[in-house]
Amino acid sequence: MRMMTELVSKSIAKLLQLEENCFLNQFGERTALEVRFNYYPCCQRPEIVLGLKPPEDGSGYTIILQDDVEGLQVLKKEQWFTVPTIPNALLVLMGDQMEICIMTNGIFKSPVHRVATNREERTFVAVFYTPEKHKEIGPEDGLVNKERPRLFKKVKDYEITLWEYYQGGMRALHVAEI
């Protein structure tokens, strides 16, 4: 999994025409990889059950391996869209630290998402890739210029702040905005 996160980080850097190790350098050498195995039992009346409240990923990004049962949804323009499942594919969701990651200076967005209930049972594995503790992260210099000024300040341990706001049902991105 470590090789996968390095590949994703380097690919994002190349896509943005940055030095390929720039995000790896920001994440640090002792990054955290947290794995969560999720099982959702079938729900006989999913139309009346909300499922889980929409989470916000405080990670840099999350890599998800889904089964073939749909249930992941993303919010766009106040409407929920179901993410299609693709057999044997990995889904990469940008987390807050990659949006402000703080690092892409807002170029990539961290989607609000949720898991909807379903008439079929559903399983998936999520791997959260987070910068090492106490490591300061901020927008990559190559993504800041006159046309796109710095949108976010440097932060440390963002996931702690995120958790505090999440408990109150709020997003935490504003704490890093300039």
Quickly describe the structure.
With 178 residues, the chain is α+β, with helices and mostly antiparallel strands.
What are the main properties of this structure?
178 residues; three-stranded antiparallel beta sheet; alpha+beta; four-stranded antiparallel beta sheet
The amount of helix comes to 10-25%
What percentage of amino acids are in beta strands? 25-35%
How far apart are the termini?
34 Å
Structural class: alpha+beta
**Which regions are unreliable across 5 or more consecutive residues at pLDDT < 50?**
none
Report strand order across the widest sheet.
1-7-2-5
Give Rg in angstroms.
17 Å
Question: What pattern of helices and strands is seen along the backbone?
Answer: HHEEEEEHEEEEH
Give the averaged pLDDT, no decimals.
84
**Number of helical runs?**
4
- What composes the largest sheet? 4 strands, antiparallel
State the total count of DSSP E strands.
9
**Overall form:** globular
Account of the 3D structure:
By secondary structure, the protein is of the alpha+beta class. The protein contains four helices and nine strands. It has helices spanning 2-15, 22-27, 96-99, 158-167, and strands at residues 32-40, 61-66, 72-76, 79-82, 90-94, 113-115, 122-130, 136-137, 155-156. The strands form three sheets. The protein has a four-stranded antiparallel β-sheet with strand order 1-7-2-5. A three-stranded antiparallel β-sheet has the order 4-3-6, with no helix packed on it. A hairpin with a 2-residue loop joins strand 3 (72-76) and strand 4 (79-82). 28% of the residues are buried. The model has no long low-confidence stretch (mean pLDDT 84).
